[in-house]
Specification:
3-stranded antiparallel beta sheet, globular, 311 residues, 5-stranded antiparallel beta sheet, 24% helix, alpha+beta, 6 helices
Length: 311
């Protein structure tokens, strides 16, 4: 905090608040050693984060949820009397009706023009997401044959502000995963980097600085340098050689409250944990099922057996 002018709001807008910092430290402390086979504070889904929505889909299907696969939504259906949303029309011309709709803020739908006749079939495109011009999310995926730390297969690291260069104003998150998480072949390592930025130039500068600090980048087209980098990666103090990488900038959008019965799902952020995502999910649940308990506590087998004995 001594590096920043606390009275200057523009300078400190990216600085973590003290309360948020304490809450994150408490979250980390409470996560350490919760599972016997995970000595650290981090656990990761086998086969990647895509398993989480897949598990939700399986659970929802058991509860009677209906899925329409490989069928994009072409337009929204509006009630002529009230002007409110009432359903969606698929690419197959099938119409599905619901009281509420949850969608990502990046979705663009067709809305019928007001007071247009059904025969005219005139539609306008409505973009429910407004682009946030002040923030973007820079992401990178890197592949290596050696770990960032020789004795660690999976690890989570951060580059705090100003740790790489003086103009670095945001933290850079680094997550390395190995084949034991079933996200890459055996003997390979997958590293994700992410950082909030204000534009493409800043985002690329942030991630390039982190990549140069973490990996040994071979000179393109030189097999001698490639072999040298591979040999250096086998030593404990050397950086792993970068085999392949990709970098892209993701637009962050915010939902515009166009209709009352349409709810927006939050955009992915740079956080390597699900705490913020869980809070956004709970908020959506409260809007859909007001008064209901989010994830009600279920009785364990031992508690159920005790209740049966008491009855």
């Amino acid at each position: 905090m001594a590096d920043y002018d606390q009275e200057n709001g523009d300078v400190c807008k990216s600085v973590l608040k003290t309360k948020d910092g304490i809450d994150r430290l408490a979250l980390y402390h409470s996560s350490v050693g919760r599972f016997p086979n995970a000595p650290g504070a981090m656990i990761y889904p086998i086969y990647g984060q895509g398993e989480l929505p897949q598990a939700f889909c399986r659970r929802a299907a058991v509860k009677g949820c209906i899925y329409v696969l490989r069928m994009p939504v072409n337009s929204l259906l509006m009630d002529k009397a009230t002007g409110n949303y009432k359903g969606v029309r698929l690419a197959s011309e099938q119409e599905l009706y619901s009281h509420k709709l949850i969608l990502a803020s990046s979705f663009v739908f067709q809305l019928p023009r007001p007071h247009s006749s059904p025969d005219a079939q005139q539609n306008v495109y409505c973009d429910f997401g407004s682009k946030n011009t002040t923030e973007k999310l820079a992401r990178s995926v890197c592949i290596t044959k050696h770990s960032l730390k020789l004795d660690k297969a999976n690890c989570l690291a951060f580059f705090p502000p100003r740790s790489l260069f003086p103009e670095q104003v945001t933290a850079i998150h680094v997550l390395q995963l190995s084949s034991n998480a079933a996200v890459c072949p055996s003997g390979m390592f997958l590293t994700y980097l992410s950082a909030i930025c204000k534009d493409d130039v800043q985002g690329k500068k942030l991630l390039h600085a982190a990549i140069n600090a973490l990996f040994c980048i071979p000179v393109s087209g030189s097999s001698e340098n490639d072999n040298s980098a591979e040999n250096q990666s086998e030593t404990r103090d050397a950086k792993p050689a970068l085999l392949w990488s990709v970098l892209y900038i993701q637009e962050l959008t915010k939902f515009q409250d166009v209709l009352d019965n349409i709810i927006s799902a939050s955009m992915p952020d740079a956080s390597p944990y699900y705490h913020d995502l869980l809070g956004a999910t709970e908020k959506i649940f409260e809007e859909l099922y007001s008064g209901e308990v989010f994830f009600p506590k279920t009785a364990s087998l031992e508690e159920g057996a005790v209740e049966e004995l008491e009855d």
